[in-house]
Amino acid sequence: TDWLKNAEFIVEIVAEHERILREIESTDANCIGPTLRSVYDGQEHGLFMEKLDGRIRNHDRDIEKMCNHHFQGFVDSITELLKVRAEAQKLKSQVTDTNQRLQDDGKGLVSCMDDLRRCRLQQRNIATTIDRLTHCLPVLEMYSKLQEQMRLKRYYPALRTLEQLEQTCLPRAGQYRFCSIMAENIPRVRTLIKDTAMSQLRDFLESIRKHSNKIGETAMKQVCPLSRPLSPPLSPGRRLRKEAGLGAATEVDGHGSSPVTEQDSGILDVEDDEDDEVPGAQELVDFSPVYCCLHIYTVLGAREEFENYYRKQRRKQARLVLQPHSNMHETLDGYRRFFNQIIGFFVVEDHILHTTQGLVNRAYVEELWELALSKTIAALRTHSSYCSDPDLVLDLKNLIVLFADTLQGYGFPVSQLFDMLLEMREQYGEILLKKWNLTFRQALDQDNYSPIPVATEEDYRQFSSQFPFQDPDLDKLPFPKKLPFSEFVPKVYCQLKEFIYACLKYSEDLHLSSTEVDDMIRKSTNLLLTRTLSHCLQYAIKKKNVGLAELVQLILNTTHLEASCVYLEGFISNITDVPPDTANTTKLYGTSTFKDARHAAEEEIYTNLNAKIDQFLQLADYDWTAAQGGGAPSDYLSDLIAFLCSTFSVFTHLPGKVAQTACMSACKHLASSLLRLLLQPDVRQVSLGAMQQFNNDVKECERFARTDPVPGFQGDTLLLAFSDLRQLLDLFIQWDWSTYLADYGRPTCRYLRVSPHTALVLLEKMKDTSRKGTMFAQFRKNERDKQKLIDTVVKQLRNLISAHQT
């Protein structure tokens, strides 16, 4: 068994060695390592080496057999090669000789070829150099052009040149050091151009801010109606600058030229032109900095930044322009400067709006205008409220109209300005009323309250031209003669027309219809009549120390002024071209004004006349206990009657009703004052003598009444004023108590105007006198009976009073 096992093991080893040998024979030498390693890892290394040596001997025998088989052919080949050797040596000698001759013959050619090679190399280098220079020269030329444009401050073309240099020329030139330097310098140049353009824009903004007054003044001159007709403001299609600063509407050409002439920013010429022609407001301004900066920022991709900066700065300038000076209301020049600056600001904005694409839009300009309009109206309302000079207000109105018309010519809505002017009209009217109030008062204070003497026909025509007065009777009288009114009348009438003219001047250019102007003037005139002139007349009537003659003349003056109202109506209709009979036409209240003043003067006459009567009555000095009365009236009463006669003689020019009323009022007041004087509580006793003296005074008053001091009374109408006194005195002097008591209460009673109360008061005073023996002295023997009679009368009077009260 062991032997079988060994035999099997040997067979396996032999087979394994055979396999390894086959692998060695068939495998690449680089991969034989693992196969040999398996041999060394085994235990039969010696056996394998024996097997390997046997295989090597087998291969050596195979190689020897093969060499023996081919050896004869090899020998033959060597023999033939030796035979060729001599021929090859001969051929080599011939080739060497031929090569030597060829070398000798080709030395000149080689030398020429070397020269040709060098020339071709030079030509190639020259062509390369020319090609490189062809690409580099445009760069240098473009850079030189850029430097020249920067020196001439042509920044927009310089920016275009810079863009062409960067995008076209430098990439073609190649990688050269100077190109790298230029490429590194391009951002700095761009920044320099951007900063310089912004600096010029700032200078431009500062310049137009300083010269906005001049720009606005020029724009207002273009539409001023007082100057000769001028061309209207440039339309949006014609608003490009002419040769002075903007030229025609130039465009950006292929060489990158600026859209406007490259000039410095600001105002071209702000000096006054000596020529008659007024230049356009835009022609004063060089807008090239704005356009240049706009195009530069657009090319640099920073247009939005530029637009925001421009609008922000202009808004700041707008706020500065819209801040009026605190003393602007003092002179018209202050308002004019304020308006000129606003117009100058918006003339520039309007031009920018129509000559740039999107720098400012319509909404932005409208926003600024709404702000300016509200600020302007607020400033005008504030400052105009301090103004008290109507001429200044009128000039301001005309300036505002010119301001509105100028801006309206540029397309800005100005209806609110005209609405404000209508509001200012009320203020203007109040100022006029104050001025005319002083004028009327001055005319009243300077008036002599005397009829105007006219010495010649020329003087008469002069006054007739000032005041519409017609009196055929006066025309027939010879010169010299007197007009019925004082100088106050023509003065007032002329001032009324001046006031109407002043109102008309304010209404001009307000785009109002004739009917509206007519209504405005009539309402203002009515205010002047009903408020101002009426107050002045009341002032003249109510002032202290006004005399009756002055009041009489005032009545005459107001009568003639009332008659002239119809002429004022016609005057207003003529200047407004509105017929007076037009529907809804406001009527003048002059008639009622002068009637009221006349009535007030009449009442003042009555009051003053009564006051004069009271002054005379204060001089009365009756001896109420006198035993016997005098035969003549009292001195104070004689003076009073003389005063009344002279006063009523002045009333001849008054309307009859006024004079009659004044006379009747004076007589009634005199009668009532005499009765109060008789019945006053301070008079405790009245004697029969005093009663007789009082009766004499009343008779004097009755005599005055019978003289008809004022014509027009019928019969004894004026005597009725003294009838109460007459009946009372007759009752006591005639002692007719039986008739009084018997007929009391009947319509036909003789003493109808004597009241029981009045009779009782006077009887009580006479009763006290009789007790002291001052009355009825001749009846002392029958004193008891007489006293009993008085007591009986007193008792009956008291019964009548009690019955009347019941």
Automatic annotation (TrEMBL):
Recorded GO CC terms: exocyst; plasma membrane
Short name of any one Pfam family annotated for the protein: Sec15_C
GO annotation terms (biological process): Golgi to plasma membrane transport; intracellular protein transport; vesicle tethering involved in exocytosis
Domain Exocyst complex subunit EXOC6/Sec15 C-terminal residue range list: 416-765
Extent of the signal sequence: none
The entry's keywords: Exocytosis, Transport
Span of domain Exocyst complex component EXOC6/Sec15 N-terminal: 51-220
InterPro entries, per the entry: EXOC6/Sec15, EXOC6/Sec15_C, EXOC6/Sec15_C_dom1, EXOC6_Sec15_N, EXOC6PINT-1/Sec15/Tip20_C_dom2
PANTHER family: EXOCYST COMPLEX COMPONENT 6B, SEC15
Function: Component of the exocyst complex involved in the docking of exocytic vesicles with fusion sites on the plasma membrane.
Similarity comment: Belongs to the SEC15 family.
Protein name (record): Exocyst complex component
Organism phylogeny: Eukaryota, Metazoa, Chordata, Craniata, Vertebrata
Gene that this polypeptide is encoded by: EXOC6B
